[in-house]
Specification:
The chain starts with a strand and ends with a strand. The protein has 16 helices and eight strands. It is an alpha+beta fold. GO terms for molecular function: DNA-binding transcription factor activity; transcription cis-regulatory region binding.
Length: 385
């Protein structure tokens, strides 16, 4: 059995599909998710079926912002027992430590963390939202649901999120850019190494009005008693650390261990206990990133090689043939769906970045783009001034 996710993640799915003129029962049946599972938040459903259904619903209903709409119907309560511990934390930093430690209660395939800003901005950190892609395809709608909910929860707990500098998506825009700007109210970047809310570091020190040390202690005792450990937590954290540094340097076990505040040998032993190794995890991350850049962008293969930390383009070619059984050029031609059949994770089709309605013409910094003009990974879409 692959990774699972609590059925609470689909809260609001049925009424949303119905309002859009669709048949929720047909979608649930198509992906093997019993309707009764949605009636009990703690029921577990396969995350692959969950994510594929979200993408299928968006396509079938002609609703490219389906994930964001579903996020608008949810709140912190979808995290179940973890929600109590998060809400009763004293500060943002304390809540994030708690969520990072126990996110496996919601799904073993998901993790969140605090990392350096991917763009090197002073005084900015990235609150990352990451999915383990080893056994489950990448889903644009699931990522938008996750980051959308992350944002809504942050706003609800803080009464606003004035320190939000940018939102990062690993995929290209699947909705009009204006939709993202309206939802998040800040710059939005696509083709990032990991999904993230990038905020001013001082946000971590902000206090919650809902803080309650007694309730938090009870909630943590419950979590530690009923959910003492998470299989796969260490590999997931290593994958996240590699994904966020890929393209800036060649990842090493020493560098990743430093990021995770542990000794390299300790990290290697922990990975071995999980039945994997640093080299295997690095290969997985490279494969996923290469697939995304080759099938989701028009970037030259030489640039893709750099982004996945290969020093030579020939190394990328050899690796792609090993992963997918075809050359990089063939992979780009056949696209995500055909490559997925060869063992690669599913990826969104190539996205084109239209200019937001009413956006101004070119200006200094990230410029407005003409419809049909390709986007570049990491490029920001800014709120018009």
């Amino acid at each position: 059995m692959g990774p699972m996710i609590r059925a609470a993640s689909l809260r609001g799915f049925v009424p949303l599909v119905e309002e859009l003129g669709g048949d929720p029962d047909a979608l649930l049946a198509r992906f093997g998710i019993p309707r009764r599972s949605l009636e009990a938040d703690d029921e577990l459903v396969p995350i692959t079926a969950h994510d594929r259904m979200l993408d299928a619903a968006a396509d079938a209903l002609g609703c490219p912002d389906f994930g964001l709409r579903l996020a608008e119907r949810q709140d912190l309560g979808v995290l179940g027992p973890l929600a109590v511990a998060v809400e009763s934390s004293s500060t943002v930093a304390e809540a994030l430590r708690c969520a990072s430690r126990f996110m496996f209660v919601h799904s073993t395939a998901l993790s969140i963390d605090v990392r350096p800003d991917p763009h090197g901005r002073r005084g900015v950190v990235a609150l990352t939202y990451y999915k383990d892609l080893r056994e489950s395809m990448y889903s644009p709608q699931a990522m938008e649901l996750g980051l959308g909910l992350f944002h809504r929860v942050s706003v609800a707990l803080l009464g606003g999120l004035t320190g939000l500098r940018s939102v990062e998506f690993p995929h290209g825009p699947v909705s009009p850019v204006r939709r993202y700007l309206d939802f998040f109210g800040c710059d939005v970047r696509f083709g990032a190494q990991a999904g993230a809310l990038c905020v001013e570091r001082q946000v971590l020190d902000e206090r919650f009005g809902t803080a309650n040390e007694t309730i938090r202690g009870i909630a943590l005792d419950h979590l530690m008693t009923h959910h003492p450990d998470s299989t796969g937590a260490v590999p997931a954290r290593v994958r996240l650390a590699i994904a966020e540094t890929l393209g800036t340097s060649v990842p090493s076990v020493v560098a990743v261990a430093r990021l995770l505040a542990t000794h390299p040998r300790t990290l290697q032993r922990q990975l071995a206990r999980e039945g994997t190794s640093f080299e295997t995890v690095l290969d997985d991350v490279r494969r996923d990133a290469a697939h995304r850049f080759i099938t989701g962008t028009d970037l030259p293969f030489s640039q893709v090689s750099t982004l996945v930390a290969f020093t030579e383009q020939s190394s990328l070619s050899h690796a792609v043939r090993r992963w997918f059984g075809i050359s990089p050029r063939e992979l780009r031609r056949v696209g995500p769906a055909a490559a997925a059949g060869r063992g690669g994770p599913g990826r969104p089709r190539e996205a084109r970045l239209p200019a937001p309605a009413g956006a101004p013409g070119p200006r200094a910094g990230p410029r407005a783009r003409a419809a049909g003009e390709p986007w570049s990974p990491g490029e920001a879409c800014r709120e018009p001034s």
